[in-house]
From TrEMBL:
It comes from Tessaracoccus oleiagri. GO terms for molecular function: DNA binding; N-methyltransferase activity; site-specific DNA-methyltransferase (cytosine-N4-specific) activity. The lineage of its organism: Bacteria, Bacillati, Actinomycetota, Actinomycetes, Propionibacteriales. Residues 36-91 form the DNA methylase N-4/N-6 domain. CDD domains: AdoMet_MTases. It catalyses: a 2'-deoxycytidine in DNA + S-adenosyl-L-methionine = an N(4)-methyl-2'-deoxycytidine in DNA + S-adenosyl-L-homocysteine + H(+). Gene3D superfamilies: Vaccinia Virus protein VP39 (3.40.50.150). This is Methyltransferase. Its EC number is 2.1.1.-. It is an enzyme of class 2 (transferase).
Length: 236
């Protein structure tokens, strides 16, 4: 394989089907009703992109969905979560995993790579939301533009923590509140492609609508490969 190239044979399946009632049944009792990060989704990503023993990171660990499934599938999982009550829930859901309390803005200071996979679903923000800051546990103030800029920096840190062949997978949806449509998934895809290489989008198919979500996606990215000169050798 030429220097600077990726192994494109390792890819996620082109779409995923998720059942609304299964997610509701497995959701933590303290979770808000719009929490929809699915164990089935996590299992599919792990099956397609990792092997037993691989290291997996979730920088927005929440109630520990990624950690719980990764641990059950024989992966080594690490989660970062801002809110202490959710840290406790994640640790209970995945007692064999590492849970670090802290904000994802400081990710590179909180965990040590490399990881084979970073899989997460960040807290959402719509254009007409606010001023609460999703990245601070919906406290403080922010704006949609600031939220995207800070999320861009977090995603850049995620990419830097990957192995050369690792993947970053972000579950994110567009939002249709009825009054305004927010292309959140597309905006996150844009900032993700600014700091890495977006290689795939996978549509998440729900059996029935979920609150104000429009299109729901898995965005798959890799670290930017080293540039290569005409001889196929990495440039200095």
């Amino acid at each position: 394989m030429p220097a600077g190239a990726y192994d494109t044979s390792v890819r996620l399946r082109p779409h995923l089907f998720v059942e609304h009632d299964r997610v509701v049944a497995e959701r933590h009792p303290a979770a808000e009703e719009d929490v929809h990060f699915s164990r089935d989704l996590v299992a599919a990503v792990l099956e397609d992109l990792t092997r037993p023993g691989d290291r997996v990171l979730d920088p927005f660990a929440g109630f520990g969905t990624t950690l719980h499934v990764a641990e059950a599938m024989g992966r080594s999982a690490v989660g970062v979560e801002l809110l202490p009550e959710r840290c406790a829930a994640a640790a209970e859901a995945a007692p064999g995993s590492v849970v670090v309390q802290g904000g994802a803005r400081h990710l590179s200071q909180l965990v040590e790579g490399p990881f084979d996979l970073v899989l997460t679903s960040p807290p959402y923000m719509a254009r007409d939301d606010g001023p609460e800051d999703p990245l601070s546990g919906y406290t403080g103030s922010s704006s949609y533009e600031r939220y995207l800029a800070e999320l861009r920096d977090i995603l850049a840190q995620c990419l830097e923590l990957l192995t050369p062949d690792g993947h970053l997978v972000v579950n994110v949806a567009n939002i249709d509140s009825g009054a305004r449509f927010t292309p959140l998934a597309w905006d996150v895809g844009r900032v993700l492609n600014e700091v890495g290489r977006l290689i795939q989008d996978v549509f998440v198919c729900w059996d029935r609508p979920w609150h104000d979500l429009a299109g729901d996606y898995l965005l798959v990215a890799r670290r930017v490969a080293p540039a290569a000169d005409f001889r196929g050798l990495p440039m200095e």
